[in-house]
Amino acid sequence: MTTVEVTLNLPADLVARAQKAGMLTPERMITLLEKELERDYRVNRLLKTVNRLHTIKPAVAVGEIDEEIRAYRASKRTKRAKAS
Fold first, then answer.
1. What is the pLDDT of residues 22-48, one digit of tens each?
2. CA 74, CA 68: separation in Å to the nearest integer?
3. 40 phi and psi, to 5 degrees?
4. What values do phi and psi take at 29, rounded to 5?
5. Which phi and psi angles does 21 have, rounded to 5°?
6. Domain locations along the chain
7. Alpha-carbon distance 9 to 28, whole Å?
8. What's the rounded Cα separation, in Å, for the pair 7 and 72?
9. Is-above-0.90 flag for pTM?
10. Which residues lie closer than 8 Å to 10 by C-beta, 6 or more apart?
11. ∠ at Cα 74 (71, 79), nearest 5°?
């Protein structure tokens, strides 16, 4: 393990709350850093996936979907009218 000394200028109330919660111990700082690194990795992976999805052309155009919905609704109206 490597020893690193970090000096931070933090608000006194934040330091007090962090100490009370046991967050300023070496073990807890290791856990917090590992979780933050994992979160950062996942966010970056998600953003890359979103960017890839934006490059994919949809298989069906929006106009085609609207047309299908209109046709479905028209057929429903026709069936209801025949049933009456």
1. 999 999 999 999 999 999 999 999 999
2. 10
3. -60, -45
4. -65, -40
5. -85, 0
6. 12-83
7. 19
8. 66
9. no
10. 18
11. 125
